[in-house]
Design a protein that fits this description.
By secondary structure, the chain is an alpha+beta fold. The protein has a domain at about 45-125. About 35% of the residues lie in helices and about 20% in strands. It has helices spanning about 10-30, 45-60, 115-125; strands at about 65-75, 80-85, 100-105, 105-110. It has a four-stranded antiparallel sheet, with helices on both faces. It is elongated and about 105 Å long. The termini are far apart.
Amino acid sequence: MTTSVQPRRFAPWVAGTVLLVAFAVLYAYASRVPLGSSAERPLDPARAIAAGEELARRQLADPESARFRGAFVDTRWLIPVTCGEINFRNATGGYAGFRRFVSSGPVSLREDQMSEEQFRNLWSTLCGPFE
């Protein structure tokens, strides 16, 4: 007479225990990690100016030649607007003089890209009085 020995079925219990321990560890970790704040962060003017200048620089044929002055951030609108002056090398390789620019979101415009009246209206609306 031979007796057959049936293997023990530990696999479901072991897998369940491992999963339970893993979830417990993840829960403990998640309860200790602080959540990101949904509060509005204050505007960093230096970063906003740098972003606006970089956007204006990308439109140039020679971005490395760009020189900026008088840049400031206007926060009257929902999106910060960077306003200032830019000088850059033109197609002949010379500097043409400082021209005003306005950058906001994905758009940057210079006063040499539109009529004087259009840019005056744009500057007055987004940056303040046109001097």
